[in-house]
Amino acid sequence: xxxxxxxGDGIGPEVTRQAVRVLEALDLxxxxxxxxxxxxxxxxxxxxxxxxxxLAMARAADAVLFGAVGDPSCDALERALxxxxxxxxxxxxxGLFANLRPAKTFAGLEGMSALRPEIARxxxxxxxxxxxxDVYFGEKGTDTLADGRRRGWDMMSYAEDEVRRIAHVxxxxxxxxxxxxxxxxxxxxxxxxxxWRDVVSEVAGEYAEVTLEHMYVDNAAMQLVRDPGRFDxxxxxNLFGDILSDQASMxxxxxxxxxxxxTGDRTTAFGTFGLYEPIHGSAPDIAGQSVANxxxxxLSAAMMLRHSxxxxxxxxxxxxxxxxxxxxxxxxxxxxxxxTTGEVGDAVIARL
Length: 352
Ligand code: NAD
Ligand code: IPM
Ligand code: MN
Fold this sequence. Notes:
By secondary structure, the chain is of the alpha/beta class. The chain has twelve helices and twelve strands. Strands 2-1-3-12-11-4-5-10-8-9 form a ten-stranded mixed beta sheet, sandwiched between helices. Strands 6-7 form a two-stranded antiparallel sheet. Strand 11 (about 260-265) and strand 12 (about 270-280) form a beta hairpin. The longest helix has 16 residues, at about 160-175. It starts with a strand and ends with a helix. The structure holds nicotinamide-adenine-dinucleotide, 3-isopropylmalic acid and manganese (II) ion. 3-isopropylmalic acid binds near residues 84, 88 and 242. Nicotinamide-adenine-dinucleotide (NAD) binds near residues 84, 284, 286 and 292.
């Protein structure tokens, strides 16, 4: 089992370190970890945020565990050289079109939700976010209009096969859960979304046991705080999924809690090839202070064991250890506690 570890920038190395410690504590025979540079640190060391050797390492692995990229000192670079291009490049180059972002309330943490505890308690949803298309990957540019005004533009589009394949992922996920799928779009305004809605409806014919509803994204953002328990699986495009998943994290309690898996069609000897990362970024405002919550990254490692490495029982052990850690009140600063990043890691390892 070969795993590429890509810590990245800001708190990326801090939280990844704890996930690696948890993996090492499992002492899995045959697990080999390789570490590579990605993001701003890779730009400074190699002149590119996604160096060829890092991409090759990811390709050669059974799974990638990714920290975060992003560095304010790189924000003025030309776009192709900015740290964020590393994660976008990995998703595109590795064909990782399906992003699974589960959000579930932890017992004992209901009071940390930005919502009232009785509303937060019911959250158990999965956002299935398309990851290879949308306005993220369309043509983009800046120019100057004839009258001298500067303009920026980004092309939003989805081809039907792109919608169909993510719809299948979402319907299958719903089949294995509560059998309810909510497709989120903006079909009342966008042609991209009308096609999205039409194709999702077509695919629904193959999944008779799943109940499909369509919802506009503005309403979905509202329903997510009004009654998040109403959602089972949510499927949506790249941009809406990015935004709604950060929002879902605060419904659960903190962005430091939500893990994610990015997968595609490629399989490995043990499961599906995937890239695993917390949904949060490099958090430059708290980097280097040892206060970042490593739970999202530790839970991403658990998803990796489950989906890419065929190790369901170890994945479940990690998840149980994290739930106990949080339930017993070992909390980092984002959850109102005083445990350092390393102390949260220690507590999870002790409960393995
Ligand atoms: P962010 O997610 O990095 O941080 C948002 C807020 O949440 C900050 O106040 C931060 O301190 C807090 N936060 C995030 N993770 C936390 C954790 N584990 N524990 C405690 N608090 C945490 O989003 P941002 O500030 O908008 O972006 C910072 C940089 O990260 C940018 O360069 C952005 O492009 C990048 N980014 C990268 C990824 C990724 O690598 N996948 C994801 C999101 C943002
Ligand atoms: C995420 C991030 C990325 C995204 C950025 C860093 C490109 O926000 O993984 O949620 O928008 O997909
Ligand atoms: Mn995001």
